[in-house]
Amino acid sequence: MPVGVTAVATPTAASQGVAIGATVAASTLFGTSDADGDAVVAYRFVDTSAGGGQWRVNGTGQAANATIEVTAANLGTVSYAGGSIAGTETVSVSAFD
């Protein structure tokens, strides 16, 4: 029996910075879409730069380069905290349906 092909969920970055020392909900930094309308079931976050801000889960800071995976139901537990000085940070977000 042929296996169907499904479109992947695609995250899109928001045009938003994070102020020095501020913490924002992860969901405010990106949006997701899926061409065939499947619901997102999980997210993956990685902070690929050391020395700046950090992803937090339930308020606990996560190490640079750590892979953080949460279900869609737990997206609200993830936030991003800006660093102590102005700069640029590289992070990644993946969404799975």
Characterization of the model:
The protein is an all-beta fold and 97 residues long. The protein is built from no helices and nine strands. It has strands at 9-13, 23-25, 30-34, 42-47, 54-57, 60-61, 67-71, 78-81, 91-96. The strands form three sheets. It has a four-stranded antiparallel beta sheet with strand order 2-8-5-6, with no helix packed on it. Strands 7-4-9 form a three-stranded antiparallel beta sheet, with no helix packed on it. The chain has a two-stranded antiparallel ribbon with strand order 1-3. The protein is globular and about 40 Å long. The two termini are 22 Å apart. The relative contact order is 0.32.
What percentage of amino acids are in beta strands? 35-45%
The chain-level structural class is mainly beta
Question: Whole-number average pLDDT?
Answer: 85
Cα Rg: 15 Å
**Helix count?**
0
Range of helix content: under 10%
Largest sheet: 4 strands, antiparallel
Label the overall shape.
Answer: globular
Strand arrangement, major sheet: 2-8-5-6
End-to-end separation: 22 Å
In short:
Helices cover 0% and strands 41% of the residues. The protein has no helices and nine strands.
Describe how the helices and strands are arranged.
Layout: E1 9-13, E2 23-25, E3 30-34, E4 42-47, E5 54-57, E6 60-61, E7 67-71, E8 78-81, E9 91-96
Antiparallel strand pairs: 1-3, 2-8, 4-7, 4-9, 5-6, 5-8
Task: List key phrases describing it.
four-stranded antiparallel sheet; 97 residues; 9 strands; three-stranded antiparallel sheet; mainly beta; 41% strand
